[in-house]
Amino acid sequence: MDPRLPRLAGRRGALLVVDVQRSFADPAFLTDLPGPARADVAAAVGGIVRAVAAARAAGTAVVWVRLRVPPTDPWEASNWFRGLAPGDDWPTAWEPCVEGTPGAEGYAVEPADGELVLTKRTYDGFAGTGLADRLRERGVEWLAVAGLTSDCCVLETAGSAFTHGFRTVVLADATAAHDRRAHDAALHVLSLHSAVVADLDEVRALW
């Protein structure tokens, strides 16, 4: 076990679940991915389901952030980055998590009554959501982060959690990317700069 983990004992933690939505998790939406990548995502979804169950059983808060893209209000910087030009048709058929479409729906596990659910517009679950304040209101001092994808919204959200002053742990067996190399690189970067990377079994005892 990482020697930093026992120092979280006695502090109030929460499980932060990022973007477990059909666009990123449902095999029906991942048909362009090779088989190993789909298997990685499926394994991570199983880990997320187990993490949520473990947190609930321990009485630990489960907090959800989900991407919602308004169909009439595109994220212009993202469109530019992906090569879309002004006047191009949008949302594209492959746009993830557009409000009112199946891709925005949850997958495999859903928030329970009373659990905090926040909507985000970008990769970062803290940007424009009030998440930091809501966590502090609940006395949360550290976060275990699970969700999809490790190289995008989990990376950005976990790094932002650290920037906002929360001790941050990323659950390696409850996240994945659509590319194994990107996944490994993301966890490596997080471990260097902002988060302890650990498996659920190492963390659940702290709840």
TrEMBL record:
GO molecular function: hydrolase activity
Ion transport in keyword set: no
Any matching Pfam family: Isochorismatase
Family annotation (InterPro entries): Isochorismatase-like_dom, Isochorismatase-like_hydrls, Isochorismatase-like_sf
Origin superkingdom: Bacteria
Gene3D superfamilies for this protein: Isochorismatase-like
Keyword field: Hydrolase
Listed SUPFAM superfamilies: Isochorismatase-like hydrolases
Domain Isochorismatase-like: 14-201
Cell inner membrane is among the record's keywords: no
Protein's name according to its UniProt entry: Isochorismatase hydrolase
Organism field: Kineococcus radiotolerans (strain ATCC BAA-149 / DSM 14245 / SRS30216)
Phylogenetic classification of the source organism: Bacteria, Bacillati, Actinomycetota, Actinomycetes, Kineosporiales
